Amino acid sequence: MLRIRILPIVLASLAALALLAGCGGSDDGEGTRNRPAPPAADFPAAQGKTLEQVLSASSGEGPVVSPAARVLREGNNRFPFGVFTLGHEQIVDAQVAIYAAPGAGLSGPAIGPFPARIVDLTTEPAFRAKTTTDDPDAAQVAYVSEIPLNRPGPWSFGALTKEGDSFKGSLLPTEGEVGQFDTPGPGDEAPMAHTPTADQVPDISEIDTRVPPSDMHTDDLADVLGKKPVVLLFATPALCQSRVCGPVVDVAAQVKRDFGDRVAFIHQEIYENNSINDGPRPQVEAYRLPSEPWLFVIDRNGRVSTAIEGPFGLGELEAALRRVAGT
What does the alpha-carbon distance between residue 139 and residue 230 come to, in Å, rounded to a whole number? Predict the structure, then answer.
């Protein structure tokens, strides 16, 4: 049976993301919190150093930097994370870069730096669900680096945060290994599964914990897969252990306004009977998901074009849809 299990390291990082919701920035849904990654040249190059040497060269202990995803693949990885102080106060505008090294310790040869961009998760007010607005922990901002990992097995991760002319070092907690999970990725054939639709249940709350429910329950995946592009979003707004599900469903709801006539949008809940104790639904099992939320953008041939674990913003989803549905 598949394990839908958010480990403490991921809970900590996503709790960190959640606290960003109350810290600074505009809240008009126009992506004003988005910030591109700083230049790699602003951070020390690994240049054959070990990860321990990279971190020890900093001027002191840095903020807590925790990953918000479990699935790591050989090749390029979208690596989301949260940044916060030891007192759990959120840092919303950090300049931070990730470093990685193969192996479970700090003695492996480090690669990096991989500077992080800041991703705004907010939407226009009309698409912000009550589930999101009533949740003081709902995430609105995430940090994302792009990290190439060239071998399977365990990897270790660290971060340098730029503070003026100096850097502070942080060791990241990790649990997943490269190649540990076989969740579908870009280029894979999307698994066929039936997804429940609104006309199959007496009360839509049976298949959607969002308040109000999303309008992404018209199509059964089995009916549209391989016939038109699909946005398949696994998320549970009211039960999300990561505090990210509500905001990403809001993001999908807003993007549906512009793409819904060309793309099937499907929101799939995570747990049987909307109860964590009842375990994951069969659709979650079919996609072999070890966490939530997950976004799959599937092309009209039934192949995964984009797969995103964790938080994503309007711009990321729109760009993914332009690749499969045009402008």
Answer: 25
Per-residue confidence at 140, pLDDT binned at 50, 70, 90?
confident
CA 251/CA 171 separation, integer angstroms: 31
| 259-293 burial code (b ≥16 CB/10 A, e <16) | beeebbbbbbbbbeebeeeebbbebbebbebbbbb
Residue 9 structure tokens: 């390291």
Tokens encoding 226: 């391989």
Q: Do residues 190 and 303 make contact, with C-beta atoms less than 8 angstroms apart? A: yes
- Rg of the chain over Cα atoms, rounded to whole angstroms, equals 19
Say whether pLDDT at 3 is over 80: no
State the pLDDT at residue 137.
66
The pLDDT score that the predictor gives to residue 23 is: 35
| Contact (CB, 8 A) for 118 and 129 | no
Question: In this structure, are residues 235 and 245 in contact, taking their beta carbons and an 8 Å threshold?
Answer: yes
Residue 68: is its pLDDT beyond 80? yes
Bridge partner residues of 162 (DSSP): 95, 167
